Structure to design on (408 residues):
């Protein structure tokens, strides 16, 4: 006799497990503990098999019969219901294990090997711009439109270059997913032409002495975060790469020797670099030390003190001060120093070495490191003094190349 709700409710546990049949292979299994479990008995390839269909009353009699009927349809199609269920669960687990975030982290662990810390930070920053709603989705389900949806806001914020770089970074992750069997294709390939093209222009920089003086006075009047203000004041003085400056660590500074020693792992050219610190820079660092000495970074992030400030912090501060991206950028301080120092008569080799530009001649590179350190130290102090003069009165500035007797 088929089961009814009344019969199901009346079933009591016994010393041993027992089953009561419904129809078409469906039965209810009653355990000694009182649980009532739906089972579907069938044969596949001559072998008897039992398929679990849930528990009663969570799964009702009608629902159990529907599940049985679904299993019978699979059997008619020559499929094993248990095997199909296992495959479905595997697909679900595979999708859960292979979200964009999971695959991206796996790709990152391989891609960053041998990269400088500044490059690693750039990779992490770009991946961090991808919102959680996409990061947490199975990578094989992400479409070109999904990607475009997160790139459009970057484009609308007029950071088109960043939008293109994020698309390229995502493409690397998708191609890795394809190569490792987690995705069928790279959907970003369908976005070629969808974003505003990047206009190639030289990095904006203030180089005219009067304009430099005005910029320095504006920076001195900055009323934002003290950490940001300190970074802004050091940027023109040290003209390091923005990524190196923001990731400066207290452990890299030897204030007694007046040197900032950047390890090779942080440098773009994978070569350790020393920045001589003028007295003005030492004063700024000593003033900042009580505020950030508790952490590793000289310029920690406001949101997370265990990380350096964002790579956009200095640019954002320049915007607040009235300098748009076509007038001055964080990277522009390097162009400012290079232009002024060359015009003021300092040796191009000394300037290039201080900028940490690569020297293709390996033998000469070794010689230059030893030969130019004393001149670089002299130049950095003279440069800081020159900037101080520009703050006061551009017309009275003495050319530091001539005054210091720098090599030409």
């Amino acid at each position: 006799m088929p089961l009814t709700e009344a019969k199901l409710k009346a079933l009591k546990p016994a010393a041993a497990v027992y089953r009561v049949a419904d129809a078409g292979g469906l039965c209810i299994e009653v355990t000694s503990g009182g649980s009532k479990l739906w089972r579907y008995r069938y044969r596949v390839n001559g072998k008897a098999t039992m398929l679990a269909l849930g528990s009663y009353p969570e799964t009702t009699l009608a629902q159990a019969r529907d599940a049985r009927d679904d299993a019978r349809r699979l059997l008619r199609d020559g499929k094993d219901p248990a095997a199909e269920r296992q495959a479905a669960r595997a697909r679900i687990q595979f999708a859960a294990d292979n979200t964009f975030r999971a695959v991206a982290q796996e790709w990152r662990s391989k891609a960053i090997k041998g990269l400088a810390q500044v490059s690693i930070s750039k990779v992490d920053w770009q991946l961090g711009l991808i919102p959680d709603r996409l990061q947490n989705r199975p990578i094989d389900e992400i479409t070109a439109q999904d990607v475009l949806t997160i790139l459009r806001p970057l484009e609308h914020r007029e950071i088109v270059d960043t939008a293109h770089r994020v698309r390229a970074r995502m493409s690397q992750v998708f191609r890795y997913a394809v190569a490792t069997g987690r995705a069928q294709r790279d959907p970003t390939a369908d976005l070629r032409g969808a974003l505003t093209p990047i206009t190639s222009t030289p990095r904006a920089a203030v180089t005219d002495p009067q304009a430099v003086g005005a910029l320095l006075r504006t920076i001195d009047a900055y009323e934002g975060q003290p950490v940001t203000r300190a970074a802004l004041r050091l940027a023109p003085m040290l003209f390091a790469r923005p990524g190196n400056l923001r990731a400066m660590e207290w452990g890299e500074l030897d204030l007694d020797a007046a040197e900032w020693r950047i390890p090779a792992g942080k440098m773009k050219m994978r070569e350790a670099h020393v920045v001589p610190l003028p007295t003005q820079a030492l004063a700024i660092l000593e003033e900042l030390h009580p505020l950030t000495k508790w952490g590793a970074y000289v310029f920690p992030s406001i949101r997370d003190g265990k990380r350096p400030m964002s790579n956009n912090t200095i640019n954002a501060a320049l915007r607040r001060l009235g300098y748009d991206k076509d007038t001055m950028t964080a990277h522009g301080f390097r162009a400012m120093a290079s232009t002024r120092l060359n015009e003021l008569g300092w040796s191009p080799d000394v300037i290039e070495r201080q900028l940490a530009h690569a020297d293709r001649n390996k033998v000469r590179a070794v010689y230059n490191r030893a030969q130019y350190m004393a001149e670089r130290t002299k130049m950095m102090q003279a440069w800081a003094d020159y900037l101080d003069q520009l703050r006061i009165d551009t017309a009275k500035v003495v050319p530091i190349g001539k005054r210091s007797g720098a090599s030409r």
Observations:
- The chain has three domains: 5-81, 99-191, 209-392.
- Residues 402-408 have pLDDT under 50 and may be disordered.
- Residues 209-392 form a domain with the hpI Integrase; Chain A fold (CATH 1.10.443.10).
- The longest strand covers residues 47-56.
